[in-house]
Amino acid sequence: MNYDAILYVSFGGPEGRDDVMPYLENVVRGRPFTPERLHEVAHHYEQFGGVSPINQQNREVITALEKELDIHRIWMPVYFGNRNWHPLLADTMREMAANGVKRALAFVTSAFSCYSGCRQYRENIEAARTAAGDAAPVVDKLRVFYNHPRFVEANAARVRDAAASLPDSGASETCLVFTAHSIPLAMARGSRYETQLHDACGFVAGAAEMSNWRLAYQSRSGSPKHPWLEPDVCDVIRALAASGVQRLILSPIGFVTDHMEVIYDLDTEARAVANEAGVEMVRAGTAGTHPAYISMIRELIEERLKKSVRRRALGGRGPSHDVCPAGCCAYEPVKRSAPLV
């Protein structure tokens, strides 16, 4: 395939107090969230001036990626489009069409497969193409990358940095807790989300030389009537404290850049639980602009540009597919219950 642009696709987030409620209304449109729940989540943003870190961090990733592509003589513009806030995908697609882009590769900021992390983004891209009209470019999504060695390398480096910040740090005495966004069990059953998470956690823990690790979930937002993935990270922290663990590292492996779910649910709520339980806690950084992660994005692009490029993946499952099969990450009850990020 001949491609003439890269489309960097993410979730989006507010960048001021006036953005918060319109942004949240975009997120929950068509879903039965109560005004009370929306105002509760809005309060999280208000504690940080209404600004989520995600958009600025994504801009920094894009700047680093542009430099990486230039070094490797891949001369294609990188466009930025979000699901829920500016720059919105439909506006970005119109810009691409106006600039004459015919075919683009989309990098989606989700390492794992599930409806909200993969299929919904593909649906968002197609809706944006429709909104942009007949001149909209064809867009092909890059594969999910949970087991790419450079994704693992970047996260392991963040874990090692966090471990080094602990006084008298020793891997054998510290518990590593990976976190990812909880999703409804009905959504999880239609995807490989849990399997991929467990694989990635094992790869990162091994690379960081930390054998004492577990996976927890965070940021549940749905109705209590519908079961979601557990255990919750705060419950895990309490249980670890009760078992005698005194130090832990939280690694938000389910997030590639900081979201409100990282800086509030982990840095604020989870930290308060750890302090109350008498556990010393540090939070590892997200992959973000780590050079290994930026190189991974470039490698994923090269895979689609050159058949000779090796598709790298750790473990026995191999690299994920480029073209999602029919029914992949299907989730019928999406209008009833879905993550509020």
Topology of helices and strands:
Elements: E1 5-10, H1 20-28, H2 35-46, H3 54-71, E2 78-82, H4 89-98, E3 103-108, H5 115-132, E4 138-141, H6 149-164, E5 175-181, H7 185-189, H8 193-207, E6 213-218, H9 233-242, E7 247-251, H10 260-263, H11 265-277, E8 280-283, H12 291-305
Parallel strand pairs: 1-2, 1-3, 3-4, 5-6, 5-7, 7-8
Helix pairs in contact: 1-2, 3-12, 4-5, 6-8, 6-12, 9-11
Written description of the protein model:
The protein is α/β, with parallel strands linked by helices. Helices cover 43% and strands 13% of the residues. The chain has two domains: 5-145 and 290-314 and 331-335, 3-Layer(aba) Sandwich (Rossmann fold); 149-283, Rossmann fold, CATH 3.40.50. Strands 2-1-3-4 form a four-stranded parallel beta sheet, with helices on both faces. The chain has a four-stranded parallel beta sheet with strand order 6-5-7-8, sandwiched between helices. Helix 6 (149-164) packs across helix 8 (193-207). The two termini are 34 Å apart. The mean pLDDT is 94.
